[in-house]
Fold this sequence. Notes:
Elements lengths: L1 E2 L2 E2 L3 H11 L11 E2 L6 H11 L5 E2 L10 H15 L4 H20 L7 H30 L6 E3 L4 E3 L18 E3 L7 E2 L14 E3 L7 E2 L12 E3 L7 E2 L13 E3 L10 H7 L10 E3 L21 E3 L21 E3 L10 H9 L5 E3 L12 H9 L38 H29 L1 H30 L1 H11 L1
Parallel strand pairs: 6-7, 7-9, 8-10, 9-11, 10-12, 11-13, 13-14, 14-15, 15-16, 16-17
Antiparallel strand pairs: 1-2, 3-4, 5-6
Amino acid sequence: MQREGGFARTWRDLQVCAQEHGPGAVDVSSGGWLCPQRRTLEDLSSSHRNTGGVSLELGAGGLSSPVLGLQQVQEARYIQQRRQPNSESAAKEQPLAEAVMLGCSLWGSAPPTPVGERRRRAVLLEGLLLVVVFPIQVSTQQLTRCPEACNCSEVTRTVTCINQSLTEVPRDLPHYVRDLLLAGNCITGLQPGTFFSEPPLQLSHLSLSSNCLEWVGDDALAGLPSLKQVDLSHNRLSSFSAVAFGNSSSLIEEVNLSNSLSNTSNGTLLAELLPPRAFPNLKFLDLSDNRLLRLPVDMFSSLFNLQHLNLQNSSLSDLYKVDFSNLHQLQSLDLSDNALKCLMNSTIFQLRSLPRLSSLDLSHNSWVCDCQIEVLVNWLKESDLVVAKETLKCSDSNEMGGRPLVTLDFADLDCPVPTDDQTQLQTSYVFLGIVLALIGAVFLLVLYLNRKGIKKWMYNIRDACRDHMEGYHYRYEINADPRLTNLSSNSDV
C-alpha cells in the first residue's frame, strides 16, 4: 500500500492507511516491513502483539525513513542473533540489540515529524545506547576481571594467588570463581566481612594455608553460602571468632586445621573453632600436628555427620571424659603418634559402640603395660577394628618393654580380679547399712534389759515435775487474790 506516492514508512503510517482503505488492503510485501505469510495490517498487528515486534523482518528495500535508519540495521542484527543464540557475537551484542529495540518501541507509533525533530531523536537514541549499553559492558568487565598477582581460569572457575606476598584477600574477585587458592602469602588476619559481595560469591573451596594467619574476626568467612571446603593448615591461629562463619549453620563439609594452632592454644580456642551446632554437615576434620594435650569434653557432641577425624601427632596424653558417643557416622579415627598410655574402659566402650567405625589407628603411643591395660588388650585380641594392632608394643623399661600388646599374658602380672567401680560403691553402701543396723539393735537391747529402772526413773521425774507445778500454781493463786495477799502480809508481821 502506497501513501502519497511512496511506501508506508512507519507503523503509524500503516495504521493511517488501514483507516483510509481498510485493514485488508494494506500490503507491505515490498519496502517497509515484511513478515512471511503476513501481508495485511491485521496479520502484522497480531504478530506485533504476540512477539513484541521481534518476528517482523526487513524487506528487500528496507525502511528508507531517516528516523528508522539505525533501527533497521540493529533490528536486523537482533533477528540474526535470535536465530543463532549460541554464537559468540550474539552474546556480545545482545545488550546492544535489546537497547535498540527499546528505543524503537518508543518511536514505532509516533507520526512523521520534521527533519530537525528526527535528527534530535536520532541524537537521543545514541545517548540512550550509551546510557544502557556502556554500564552493562563496564559491569560485565568488573564481574570477570582478574585481580592483580593472580591467575584466573573461567573454564575451571579457579583463582590462584599462591606465593604472591599478599597481605589481604584480593577484592573484586570474578563472579565465576569456585576455587580460591591463597596459600603461601602473608595474610595475618581476616577482617569482618572479608568475603561479603553483591551478588554473593559462590565459592566452594577456600585455601588459606601457610599464611601465618593469627586471628579471624566476626563474620570474616560469612557471605559464602556455598562454601564446603576450608584449608587453614600451617598457620599460627591464636584467636578465632565463634561467629566467624556467621550466626547460622554452615554447609561446610571439610575443615583442615593441621599444624594451624599456636603453641599457646588450649581448649578455649578449640571451642571457638568448633562451636556447638555450627557445622551440622561437617564430614572431614583434620586436627593433626597440634599441641592439644587434651580435648574439650563436649567437642564432638554436635558433629553428627563427621566421617573422618584425624588427631595424629597432637600430643594427647589421654582421652579422659571425651564424648565420642554422638559420632554415629564416624568411619576412621587416627590417634597415632600421641602420648597415650592407656584407654579408659568408658572410652573403649564408646569406640566399640560406633556402628560405622572401620579404621582406628593407635600406633606409636606410649602404652604402659600394667593391670589397667587389660581391657584394651582383650579388645585388641577379639577385634579387627584397630589398624596394624600387631605393631602396638609396651613402652615400659621392665621385662614387659617391647612386647606386643596382643601377646600379653596377665597371669604373669598377678593382677587382682577386676571389679567395676559401681559394684564397689554398692558394696560400701551395704556394709554401712549393716553397721548402722547393729548399732540400733544394741541400743534397743540395752533399753529392754533396763526397762524397770527406766520406768521407775520416769515416774520419779513425773512426780518431781508435778510438785514443782503445784508450787507455781499456789503462788499464782496468792498473787491473784488481794485478801490472800493481805493475810500473807499479816502473817509475816
